Amino acid sequence: MALTSFTLKARDGRARTGVISTPRGDIRTPAFMPVGTAATVKGMMPESVRETGADILLGNTYHLMLRPGAERIAKLGGLHKFMNWQRPILTDSGGFQVMSLSDLRKLTEEGVAFRSHIDGSKHMLTPERSMEIQKLLGSDIVMSFDECPALPASKDRIRASMELSMRWAKRSREAFGDRPGHMLFGIQQGGLEEDLRRESAEALREIGFDGYAVGGLAVGEGQEAMFGCLDFAPDMLPQDQPRYLMGVGKPDDIVGAVKRGIDMMDCVLPSRSGRTGQAWTHRGQVNIKNARHADDPRPLDETCTCPACRNYSRAYLHHVFRSNEMISGMLLTWHNLHYYQELMQGMRDAITAGTFDAFEQEFHAKRAQGDIDPL
Q1: Cα 73 from chain centroid (whole Å)
Q2: Are residues 50 and 168 in the same domain?
Q3: Residue 266 to residue 141: CA distance in whole angstroms
Q4: Range of 297's domain?
Q5: What DSSP designation does 214 have?
Q6: 252 in catalytic set
Q7: What is the per-residue pLDDT for 102?
Q8: Suppose 91 and one of 21, 70, 113, 139 were both cysteines; which one would form an S-S bond, judging by CB atoms 3.0 to 4.6 Å apart?
Q9: Domain membership flag for residue 105
Q10: How many Cα atoms occupy the beta-carbon half-sphere of 337 within 13 Å?
Q11: Are residues 112 and 230 located together in one domain of the fold?
């Protein structure tokens, strides 16, 4: 029996539900991965993240290679032990973060030379080095090294970037080698161009990966354009392997992506929003800092079972935010992650039951109601 595998359990239209099996545990799909950038999901204990229903976390190669360093983490027993998370971890390749530092980096065929945003020290990140770092971290799911141009960009620029990413994908595959129990995902690029997406998918399939990501979206193109690309891009990838949409997103982005055949997603939004007083609920977004909540004894979301909703009022959450108390970001982050995982479970159940269209309609109808009326 394979150490890692992907089993599709049910389909409803293009939406899919299944299980990615790994030595560190199963990942139920569609899956949302909380982002633990620097070996922590900000404001959360690992066991609390697990309590929300998360099966897998995302770690960030770029940040971890700079601080505390991949070699140091390896000496301390690997990322799972280091951050006390014994379930699966996916690490990104570092490419996106390096590319976003356009004034600090130089791109060549070999890789990317850049200066650390922390102390200005010089570094070189190549496909081979990215694979080495992710191996040192002990990642269960490793991402190939790619370049991701911001949109909008010219088709020539997108083509050149995609072709470079495919050459880097081949080098990533060769450097990854044979690692039973670990998976390597290739990343499809090509912007919003259907022909470039197809060329990229064909190149990746020829190389051969354990899973495939749709990269280069959620980088400024807007939801309508992203969905337009997802109307064709996922179906170019193998049917029997996981499909991961990188860096997405808002709840309605996630539902729309799953509808179009995506199995995995990640985003900093639920934790980042929590730290700034924004809560995601069944009835849309709530800004707990607004004065309307100051005397409101009701929970943030009456249908939610997270600690913030079970044990605290809107008035309390409003007070601790206005007072800059640490517990404020902790409670709202817990709530947001709980809501996201509840959303994923709802979609898994709906796909299994063959009722995804009804689920989607109810999801949008509830959000259209808006937040509960003020007292």
Answers
A1: 22
A2: yes
A3: 13
A4: 274-369
A5: E
A6: no
A7: 59
A8: 139
A9: yes
A10: 33
A11: yes
Active-site residue, 253 included: no
Handedness of CA 250, 262, 8, 354 (dihedral sign): positive
Of 92, 140, 210, 296, the active-site residue reads 92
Q: Please check whether residue 354 lies inside any domain of the structure.
A: yes
User: Does residue 151 lie within any of the structural domains?
Assistant: yes
CB atoms within 10 A of CB 235: 13
What's the alpha-carbon Rg for the chain, to the nearest Å?
21
Q: Which pLDDT score is estimated for 95? A: 85
Residue among 140, 210, 263, 266 flagged as catalytic? 266
Extract the residue ranges of the chain whose pLDDT is less than 70: 1-2, 102
Beta bridge pairs of residue 371:
none
Contact 52, 72 (CB under 8 A): no
Domain total of the chain = 2
Give residue-wise pLDDT tens across range 177-217: 999 999 999 999 999 999 999 999 999 999 999 999 999 99
Q: Which two tokens stand for residue 71?
A: 């070699």
Q: Are residues 215 and 238 in the same domain?
A: yes
Q: Which residues of 238-272 are buried (b: 16+ CB within 10 A; e: fewer)?
A: eeebbbbbbbbbbbebbbbbbbbbbbbbbbbbbbb
Helix runs in 208-268, H state only: 223-230, 251-259
In a domain, 134, yes or no: yes
* Alpha carbon distance 43, 313 (integer Å): 19
Q: Which of 212, 235, 266 is the C-terminal boundary of a domain?
A: 266
Confidence (pLDDT) at 17: 98
Q: Could you give the 3-state DSSP secondary structure of residue 194? A: helix
Q: Is the pTM of this model over 0.85?
A: yes
CATH number at residue 196: 3.20.20.105
Q: How many CA atoms lie within 13 A of 175 on its CB side?
A: 20
Query: Could you give the count of Cα atoms lying within 13 Å of 292 in the half-sphere of its Cβ?
Result: 10
Pair type for strands 284-287 and 5-12: unpaired
CA atoms within 13 A on the CB side of 51: 12
Please identify, among 237, 266, 295, the residue that sits at the C-terminal boundary of a domain: 266
d(CA 60, CA 260): 26
The alpha-helical segments, DSSP class H, found in 283-325 are: 307-311, 314-322
What is the per-residue pLDDT for 1?
39
pLDDT score, position 66: 96
CB 216 within 8 A of CB 189: yes
121 and 181 both lie in a single domain = yes
Q: What is the DSSP letter of 372?
A: P
Q: Are 269 and 278 in contact (CB under 8 A)?
A: no
At 105, list the tokens: 């980096």
